[in-house]
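Provenance and format

Records in this collection were gathered into a single text stream. Each protein contributes a sequence line and a token line. The two records reproduced below are adjacent in the stream.
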Amino acid sequence: RIIIKKNKKDNTIGETEMKLGNNLKIDELDVYPNPTSSEMNFKFKIRKKNPTEFKIVDIAGQEVFSEKIENFSGSYQTTFDFSNLTEGMYFFQINQDGKKFTEKIMYSKD
């Protein structure tokens, strides 16, 4: 569990809770390079067929990427370019059938 503080008055970092308790079974997960200085590759496999959402959120919980796939099962692969975003910690999430998998990822321009 990661807790981040956010000031609601001026929208600076405040208190947000990101739970990393994963209850969605993911097969063959591969996320690289992590940390990244530009693009990051995401590959995974899910056996159970259900609507699935893959998203990337920043440390404040704001979505920077989201893709929804109806009745998904099998292999998923995408590449995400971080170069237009602020350096720092992000999270990728896979949501399916009320279950979630969350993992920390890092972006640094160096």
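Adjacent record:
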Amino acid sequence: RHSFGSRGGTQDPDATIVKVETPKVMIGVQLVEPDSAIRGHFGLKRGEASMVASVFEGLPASNAGLEPYDIIVGINGKTPVSTDDVREALRDQAAGANVNIDVIKKGQRTR
């Protein structure tokens, strides 16, 4: 069992308390590794790109026009980028910082 907080009452003595660190910078996307067919189509190897699985409305990615199935191939001039590379690059940014993302959108590379 996991306890993510208490609304009062008694605490479950068998519960595990989990502290979650909120990232400083969230662009508002869920990322996945592109499958082999997509990587093959664009000449990418495993770990060279991240695919946008979903975009959260009202957050920077949505406001910048990122959409599901966009493929992130660079961030702040660094290429290639795995999903871990994207997370690490965002972790290093200050809140409110601009992030440059190179994307394959509908088959075309954009920035």
